[in-house]
Amino acid sequence: MKWVTRRYVHVDRTACPWLIKRFVDPKAEFLFVPLEKIEEIVTKETAIPYDAPNVELGHHGERCSFDSIIEKYKIKDPAVLELAKIVRAADTDTMEKVPEAAGLEAIMSGMGIESKDDHETVAKAIPVYDALYTNCKLRLIREKYKSEIEKMDRNERREFLKKKLEKNLIY
To answer: Residue 8's closest CA among 124, 87, 118?
Structure first.
């Protein structure tokens, strides 16, 4: 399936392709066009629009496009829901709500400027979102197993966390 959004990607428009590829459509193809061309491309390419004005998968109230995709495709993964808080805060200029948000916004600003095009920016952003997603999983594991982890030394803790991640035991 083809997905279309505005060119010059930033936080939400780099996070959404990660989310779509990982949880909705692994074979997704992304098109980045001038805002005024989105409707034309939706019709011509039968593309799904996201993070554009007046589209289902766009901003609604305090929620960003990442949230809209989670809701529409019923993504329930707790680590994705944690990641959504970071993306939302970075994208909606409420960075004081989530500590990681300012860093994400800074990284995506830098990537967007240094990349040759939006496809390159999204490709570079994928490992950033993978790392944030893993960090969100780790946070949830640490919360769930807090009393056990507190009794471990650094090496034991690392191995414990790695095993939980491998087995996806965060829920």
So the answer is: 118
pTM of the model: 0.93
Span 29-84, pLDDT tens digits:
999 999 999 999 999 999 999 999 999 999 999 999 999 999 999 999 999 999 99
CA distances to 18, 109, 160 from 121, rounded to whole Å, are: 12, 10, 34
39 and 86 Cβ atoms separated by less than 8 Å: no
